[in-house]
């Protein structure tokens, strides 16, 4: 590609890859003046030679690192959700077309962008992702142990604790029925289970320690039902919540609002949208269900009367989702305004 001389740029779109980046840039007249592929290691050297402008990139792995790097160089980076870039794609899908679509999307005046995460947020997010993976693997391991036992004609009642308490007893009582090889396999799986239990406990304790020292987490944990897991996951995901204008916007991002299909002045609301953060949505729903299990304590909370009325007219699961929506909105408000919840909170609403 021949070198192009230009004095200023309007926007640059970066299609981020594992080893290479594809750049497409437009000047103030809307003419494409950059179409270039660079190595990841050449990012700083390349952008140091370019006029300062808006730089768009899709929200993906390393997007926050690239954004922080370019901001230090004086650029205005914008991390864009992939769903907002898709309408600007033209022609066949390739890296240059993707970068061009990103460059055009970055200039939209009402574009909702992803907040740039700090290194502390990324570290906290990594802890949650590691814990989530370990919990998933532990569940898979327990299910496999149960499946192998059923193949031997042995069933164990539901519950993690029931299997853990009876595992050694089963192996000893049924040693004549279980082959030596199967016994060895089961013992190995049980060892994996115990190792994952230990790892999950260590990661959970690290998350709890962070929640006690982080001011934003301490504030959010004053909301009933919200503990170290939700507070740290929320701070890791949205920082101080500046990306949202109001609590309902955050609840919509979490996916706790009804899916809307309205036309011709007729409003149609369906099931919850389930958009945004699946992990946070799961945690908020779990917190809501914990509170729903203790109706005798609802009057202690400022939303107790509302919850009582909601429980009377809604199915239990629907009421739990409505409560999760309310918890999310209250948590955002507390996080954004650095305040505390206005009602007493004690051990009855165990935080998640």
From TrEMBL:
InterPro entries: Transp_IS110-like_N (IPR002525), Transpos_IS110 (IPR047650), Transposase_20 (IPR003346)
Family matches, as Pfam families: DEDD_Tnp_IS110, Transposase_20
Highest taxon listed in the record's lineage: Bacteria
Signal peptide (from-to): none
Location of the Transposase IS116/IS110/IS902 C-terminal domain: 219-295
GO molecular function, one term: DNA binding
Domain spans labelled Transposase IS110-like N-terminal: 12-149
GO biological process terms on file: DNA transposition
Coiled coil residues, start to end: none
Designated name of the protein: Transposase IS116/IS110/IS902 family protein
Source organism: Pelagimonas varians
Lineage, top ranks: Bacteria, Pseudomonadati, Pseudomonadota, Alphaproteobacteria, Rhodobacterales
């Amino acid at each position: 590609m021949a070198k192009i001389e230009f004095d200023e740029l309007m926007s640059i779109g970066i299609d981020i890859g594992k080893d290479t980046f594809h750049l497409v840039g437009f000047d103030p007249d809307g003419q494409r003046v950059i179409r270039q592929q660079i190595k990841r290691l050449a990012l700083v050297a390349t952008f140091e030679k370019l006029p300062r402008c808006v730089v768009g990139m899709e929200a993906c792995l390393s997007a926050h690192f690239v954004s922080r790097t370019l901001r230090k160089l004086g650029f205005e980076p914008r991390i864009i959700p992939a769903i907002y870039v898709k309408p600007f794609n033209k022609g066949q899908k390739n890296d240059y077309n993707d970068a061009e679509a990103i460059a055009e999307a970055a200039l939209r005046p009402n574009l909702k962008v992803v907040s740039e995460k700090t290194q502390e947020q990324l570290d906290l997010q990594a802890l949650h992702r590691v814990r989530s993976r370990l919990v998933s693997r532990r569940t898979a391991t327990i299910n496999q142990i149960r499946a192998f036992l059923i193949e031997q004609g042995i069933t164990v009642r539901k519950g993690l604790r029931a299997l853990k308490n009876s595992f050694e007893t089963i192996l000893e009582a049924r040693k004549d029925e279980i082959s030596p090889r199967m016994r060895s396999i089961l013992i190995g799986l049980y060892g994996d289970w115990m190792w994952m239990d230990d790892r999950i406990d260590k990661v959970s304790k690290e998350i709890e320690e962070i929640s006690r020292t982080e001011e934003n987490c301490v504030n959010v944990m004053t909301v009933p039902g919200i503990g170290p897991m939700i507070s740290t996951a929320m701070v890791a995901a949205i920082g101080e919540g500046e990306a949202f204008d109001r609590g309902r916007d955050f609840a919509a991002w979490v996916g706790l609002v009804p899916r809307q299909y309205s036309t011709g002045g007729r409003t149609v609301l369906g099931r919850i949208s389930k958009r945004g953060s699946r992990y946070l949505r799961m945690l908020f729903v779990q917190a809501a269900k914990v509170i729903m299990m203790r109706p005798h304590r609802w009057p202690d909370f400022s939303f107790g009367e509302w919850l009582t009325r909601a429980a009377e007219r809604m199915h239990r699961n629907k009421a739990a989702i409505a409560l999760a929506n309310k918890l999310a909105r209250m948590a955002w408000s507390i996080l954004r305004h650095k305040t505390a919840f206005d009602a007493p909170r004690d051990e009855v609403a165990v935080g998640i």
